[in-house]
Each structure stands twice: as C-alpha cells, then as structure tokens.
C-alpha cells in the first residue's frame, strides 16, 4: 500500500517541479508562463479534438517504450526501438504488398505476425550478442538502428520502389483494403488498441507470472538468478524478442494504419521517443500508458505554442528534457521518505 | 488567444464541417475553390524541418513572413512536423482552431496520403502543396500544387561557376537521386560546360535530406580532390557552404541566400521566391478569384531567382550570366536540347529535339548528363 502511494506521489511531485522549472524558462523567452501552461493543457487534453490528437501520437510510443522497458527489467539498456520498428514495418509492408488481393483479414494478420517476428528477431539478436559474446547491448542496438534504416533506404530505392513514386521513393502500396481503419467515428486509428492491450498484457505477465518474476530476478541480481537455476540466456533472449516484437508491431501499424507503403517516413523518431517514455515509466508496462499520453499530449500542444505564442518547436523538447531529468533525479527519493512508510510499532 | 477558438466540442466540430460542406455545395463550387471575398485570409504553413535552417524550410518561412505583413492576412505556421499522422493532426488543428482557409504543407512527403485524405474530409479548405503532384484525373479539387523551375537559376549558377573555377572541377552534394535533384545537377553542369566544355561535376549522394555529418565529409573530400566550387541540393546548404568557406574554396547556394555564411567564396545561388507566390494566392483569395490547381513557373514568372553575386565574381561572368538570364526571361532559352549525351555515352536527347521547361518528359529524368562524374545509384 505505502509503496503504491510512493510510486504515485514521487512522479507527480517531480512533474509539478518540472512545470515550475519550465515556467522559469518560459519567462526568459518572453511569454506568460501561465498562458503557455494553459495552452499546453488545452492543446493536449482540452477538448475531444485535442484528446484524439494526443492519442494518435501516444499510440506508437506505447509500443516502442516496451522495447526499452522490458530489457531494462532484465538488466539491459536497449535503445534499438527505432531499428526494430523500421525492420518490422518494412517486413510487414513487404508481406502486405506480396499478399495484396487476398482477404484483408488474412493480409493484416500476416502483417502483424511478420512485423512482430522480424522486430522480435532484431532485438533478440541484441540479447544473444550480449549473452553469448558479451557485446554491449546499448551499442549494438544503437548500431542496428542504422542498419535497419540503411536496409529500408536500399530496398525502397531499389527493388521495392514503385516507379510512380518519382520524387519520394516509396514501395508499392499495400492496398486500401488492407489498411487498419479508425476506431468508430473517431480519427484515432486502431494502433491505439494494439498499444494499450500490449501494455496491459505485459503488465500482467510481469507481475503475475513466473516468467515476469524470473525476469525481475535476473535484473536484480544476475549471478544469484543463475545460481538458483534460472536459464538466464534463454530468458534474456525471450525478453528481448518480446520487446522487439512490440516495436516491430509499432512499425507494422505505422505502415498499415498511416503510411500505406514503406518509405523513409517510417523512420520518424518514435523509437527514440519510446526510450524516454520507458525511463519515465520506470520500465513498468502499466505506467507506460499514462506516460505515453503525457508525452503525446506535450507533442500535440506544440502546434498551439508555435501558432499562438511564436515559440519555437524546441520549447516542447525543452519541457520533455526537464521532465526527463527531474524524474530521473527523483529516483533517489524512493524508499527514503519516511512519511510513506507504515509506522512500525515496537513493543 | 481567445477561448472560443480553442474550445471545440466534437458536436460543434461536426456541425461546422457539415455546414461548411453544405455551403460549398450551395455555392456551386466547380473545378476549383473560390471564396466570396472574406474579410481576412487565414493561411497555415507547415514545415518538415526548422524555420531557420538556411534552406528549404527557411525559404517557405520567409514566404510566410512576407505574406503575414499584409494586414488582412493571418498567417500561422508550425515547424518540425514529420511526414506521419502528425501532419494530419497539424492540418486539422489549423483548420479547426485557427480557421485556416488555405493550407501550405510544404514538404514533398506530406502529399500522399496525408493531404489527399485530409482534403477529402475538409472540402471547404484549399490545400496547396509545394511540388507539382496534383493530377486533375485523380485528386480532389480542393488540392493544388505549386512549384518553380529552380533549375533555371541553377543553370545560371553553373555559368558563374564555369567562369570562376580554376581547376575545372565542380562538386555537387545531393540528397538522393530523384528526378528533381538530377535535373538540378544536369542544369548546373550544362551551365558550366557552356562556358568551358572541359569542366566536370563530381556528385556525391548523401542518402538523406538532412545528413550534416555526411555533407561535411563530402565537402571536405571534394576540397581535397582539387574541386574549387561546391554546391548542393539538400534541405539545408548551411554545412556545405560553411565547409567550402572554411576550406578556402568557392560555393553556390541553394533554397535561400547563404551569402552571409561565406562572405569570401560565395558566388551566387538559386533561390525560391515564395513571398511572391504566397502573396499572389492571398490576393486571389481576398478578391474571390478562382485558385488554379497548378501553378508553375521559373525566372520569368518570378517564382525563382538568383542570389546577389558575391564580391569575387568577375564582371565578365556577370555579363554572361545576365545575358542568359534575359533569354530565360523572354522564353528563348532552352536548357535541354539535343544532341545531348548522358555520362555513359548514351544519347538521351537526339539532335533536333528539345524539351522546353514545362515538358513533362523532364519530370522523370533518370540520367546524368555528360560531364558529371557519378551514377544515379546512390
């Protein structure tokens, strides 16, 4: 119970402190801090239109955040979400193009499976390099991002290129019938459901299954886990696979719900933004959902800040940066604040 | 910021869209969209990169700033908007919250599917896209394209470079080998070779529109190879121009005026003149004129221009370039006329044949002209 209160109170306090620091920054750039904060809130959550704007931006972040959060629980710092997303999206697009014409349900499910599989293998490779060859996972996952982007460029400029895409080299389209539509009559595409459901399932898996317990145990003390008989290597690779599969799924959704074809727009930075989300959520899959909403909302409000206050786009990046640093610094307070602890009655 | 602008409920939004849709039907909107002379004109601009990139995005921002000076225009913009669903949300937000009547999403990749889908949803708003992709047979009527034949001033840059180069080796740093880019490289080379047929242009493709590290590497390696004039076609020429200046060689700019970045070696450059294009559109909307779906033009139409000559440019070079500029202005100059060989020796335009600027055949250019060292494969 007390740890629950602590795990909510500390991030909220950190968030409020970030807003105070941000306000000082805004004062220096000549705008009224209260007006700016109000505009951020309106732009992010102030109306149904703003909510939809926030939700579509948050959807891919939920999945790419998993790609960093899950390996972090087992003790690996993986920053390869961008590469896994690009690889998964590219593979999904290729399957979509190849199967175009078959029943859409079949095509879409094949795309989901292929995108997740390739994204999963992409990060599983990172885990395998780490376990068997002791290659630093942060460096290898970062470098794999560049490889994925290079492969994408190579294929899109080469064999996959639709000759009709003259000045924006793109693959052939997957076909309108195979696109994932919007949820009901909103303008939010189905990717949000994938994001929320994935986060919920993984939250359950991490908290309620022996697998989740084993992962946390390895993350806590790898040597002890090994000595107690856990198959560390296997668990590392499986965890990395699930993480990569989530990012690959994000890539598939970007293709099937947004772009309709593969091109360089697939590499839009969601993988990197996901790292921020994962750290802010302290690698908890459930917390990823509200944190993704928060960052999606900040991003959604950027337009209003630019148009109404003449502030540069970088303003929202500054806010994101402040939140990131303050939340990381606030980690130091966990377990240190006495008033969260139950009073121990001594005899 | 007024509250009522922001506070849109979904119901009001739907009402507004329906009403606007109905109004457009009753108004008998035909081929193109026209307005009954509104009091103020609300124009939204969207850029894929930063406003101050000394390049493509800045050229549009300068256009926006010019049109914003008119007291009957309300112009607003948003920078760093990626070519994803985010640009859809930005467009919708400008329509719903700022009352945009016309939108200028300027990045090439915004067009398909984002502009096309959003335009179908908001038939009362005009979507004008920079790039010339609009096709009457396929695309909504409230979408249009505008673009400039910037290879005309690029040709003039080539003429100046041809006069100024001592080594006879020019360098071109380009993003990816797409028709638009190849056309600029070819025009630059043809311009230079019209002065000295022995001149060669070395091409490096960096693989992306914004790759500052590779751009700097390419510029340095070109300077090492004895190339003495650099130019480029990437989103921001800043890195290439600054590197050239640092290495003590000359350069030609692109997109906007970069002369301040290279006070010593800057020769001239090819610039967009969006201020004119955007002011013309604003005027058309204000007076209720029909907006044409396709606007294209070169030096003659004032859509593109050359940067002022740098101080090292010789009088002889200026006279020569100005003479050709006159021919562009009176329409007698044709860049692409046969016989013309590509750099593999194949004849691409036979003798006696010529492609004028508006010729659609030039839009799918996939070859590099004789004198270019490089291939169309990146």
Structural class of chain B: alpha/beta
- Helical content of chain B stands at 25-40%
Largest interface: A-B, 39 and 44 residues
Strand order of the largest sheet of chain B: 12-10-9-8-6-7-17
Number of strands of chain A: 0
Which structural category fits the helices and strands of chain A? Answer: mainly alpha
How many domains would you count in the coordinates of chain B? Answer: 2
Major pleated sheet of chain B: 7 strands, mixed
Mean pLDDT of chain B: 89
Strand content of chain A: under 5%
Average predicted local confidence, pLDDT of chain A: 92
Can you describe this structure?
- The complex is a heterodimer of chains A (347) and B (378).
- Chain A folds into two domains: 1-28 and 313-340, no CATH class; 61-278, no CATH class.
- Helix content of chain A is 73%, strand content 0%.
- Chain A has 13 helices and no strands.
- Chain A has helices at residues 2-28, 33-45, 48-73, 81-99, 104-133, 137-157, 191-208, 210-220, 222-227, 232-259, 270-280, 285-309, 314-330.
- In chain A, helix 1 packs antiparallel against helix 13 (314-330).
- The two termini of chain A are 23 Å apart.
- Chain B folds into two domains: 34-149 and 274-297, 3-Layer(aba) Sandwich (Rossmann fold), CATH 3.40.50.2300; 151-268 and 304-373, Response regulator (Rossmann fold, 3-Layer(aba) Sandwich), CATH 3.40.50.
- In chain B, 37% of the residues lie in helices and 20% in strands.
- Chain B contains eleven helices and 17 strands.
- Chain B has helices at residues 3-6, 10-26, 56-68, 85-98, 111-121, 151-164, 179-195, 212-224, 238-246, 274-286, 315-330; strands at residues 41-46, 73-78, 102-105, 126-130, 143-148, 169-174, 200-205, 229-233, 250-255, 266-272, 294-297, 304-306, 336-337, 340-341, 347-349, 354-355, 372-373.
- In chain B, helix 6 (151-164) runs antiparallel to helix 11 and helix 8 (212-224) packs parallel to helix 9 (238-246).
């Amino acid at each position: 119970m007390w740890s629950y209160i602590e795990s909510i109170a500390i991030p909220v306090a950190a968030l409020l402190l970030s807003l105070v620091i941000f306000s000082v920054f805004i004062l220096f750039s000549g705008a009224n801090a209260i007006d700016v904060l109000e505009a951020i809130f309106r732009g992010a959550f102030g109306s149904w239109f703003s909510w939809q704007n926030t939700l579509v931006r948050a959807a891919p972040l939920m999945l790419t955040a998993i790609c960093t959060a899950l390996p972090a629980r087992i003790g690996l710092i993986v920053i390869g979400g961008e590469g896994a997303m690009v690889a998964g999206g590219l593979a999904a697009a290729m399957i979509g193009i190849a199967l175009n014409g078959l029943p859409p349900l079949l095509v879409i499910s094949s795309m989901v499976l292929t995108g997740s599989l390739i994204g999963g293998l992409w990060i599983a490779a990172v885990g395998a390099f780490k376990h068997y060859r002791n290659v630093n996972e942060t460096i290898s996952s970062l470098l794999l991002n560049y490889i994925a982007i290079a492969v994408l460029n190579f294929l899109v400029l080469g064999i996959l290129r639709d000759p009709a895409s003259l000045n924006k080299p793109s693959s052939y389209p997957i076909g309108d019938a195979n696109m994932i539509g919007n949820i009901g009559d909103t303008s939010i595409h189905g990717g949000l459901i994938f994001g929320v459901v994935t986060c919920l399932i993984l939250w359950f898996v991490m908290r309620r299954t022996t697998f989740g317990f084993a992962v946390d145990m390895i993350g806590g003390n790898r040597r002890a886990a090994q000595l107690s008989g856990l198959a560390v290597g296997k668990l590392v690779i499986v965890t990395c696979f699930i993480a990569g599969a989530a990012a690959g799924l994000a890539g598939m959704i970007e293709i099937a719900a947004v772009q309709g074809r593969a091109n360089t727009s697939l590499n839009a930075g969601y993988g990197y933004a996901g790292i921020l989300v994962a750290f802010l959520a302290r690698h908890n899959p459930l917390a990823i959902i509200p944190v993704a909403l928060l960052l999606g909302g900040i991003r959604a409000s950027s337009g209003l800040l630019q148009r109404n206050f003449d502030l540069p786009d970088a303003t929202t990046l500054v806010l994101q940066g402040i939140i990131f640093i303050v939340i990381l610094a606030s980690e130091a307070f966990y377990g240190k604040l006495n008033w969260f602890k139950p009073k121990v009655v001594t005899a | 910021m007024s509250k009522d602008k922001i506070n849109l409920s979904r119901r009001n939004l739907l009402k507004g869209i329906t009403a606007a849709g109905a109004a457009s039907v009753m108004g008998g909107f035909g081929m193109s969209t026209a307005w009954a002379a509104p009091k103020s004109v609300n124009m939204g601009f969207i850029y894929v990169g930063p406003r101050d990139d000394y390049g493509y995005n800045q050229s549009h921002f300068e256009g926006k700033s010019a049109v914003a000076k008119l007291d009957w225009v309300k112009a607003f913009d948003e920078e760093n908007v990626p070519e994803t669903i985010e640009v859809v949300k930005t467009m919708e937000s400008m329509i719903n919250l700022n009352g945009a009547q016309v939108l200028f999403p300027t990045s090439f990749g915004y067009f398909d599917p984002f502009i096309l889908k959003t335009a179908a949803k908001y038939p009362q708003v005009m979507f004008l896209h920079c790039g010339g992709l609009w096709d009457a047979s396929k695309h909504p009527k409230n979408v249009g394209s505008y673009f400039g034949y910037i290879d005309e001033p690029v040709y003039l840059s080539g003429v100046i470079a041809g006069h100024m180069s001592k080594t006879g080796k020019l360098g071109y740093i380009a993003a990816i080998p797409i028709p638009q880019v190849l056309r600029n490289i070819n025009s630059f080379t043809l311009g230079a070779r019209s002065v000295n047929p022995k001149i060669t242009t070395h091409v490096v493709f960096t693989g992306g529109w914004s790759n500052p590290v590779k751009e700097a590497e390419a510029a340095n390696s070109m300077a090492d190879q004895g190339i003495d004039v650099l130019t480029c076609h990437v989103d921001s020429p800043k890195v290439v121009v600054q590197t050239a200046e640092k290495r003590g060689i000359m350069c030609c700019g692109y997109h906007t005026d970069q002369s301040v970045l290279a006070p010593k070696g800057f020769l001239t450059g090819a610039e967009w003149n969006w201020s004119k294009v955007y002011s013309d559109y604003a005027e058309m909307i204000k007076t209720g004129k029909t907006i044409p779906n396709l606007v294209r033009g070169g030096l003659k139409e004032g859509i593109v221009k050359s940067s002022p000559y740098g101080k090292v440019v010789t009088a002889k070079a200026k006279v020569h370039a100005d003479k050709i500029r006159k021919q562009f202005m009176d329409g007698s100059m044709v860049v692409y006329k046969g016989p013309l060989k590509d750099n593999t020796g194949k004849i691409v335009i036979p003798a006696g044949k010529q492609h004028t600027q508006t010729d659609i055949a030039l839009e799918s250019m996939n070859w590099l002209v004789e004198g270019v060292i490089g291939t169309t494969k990146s």
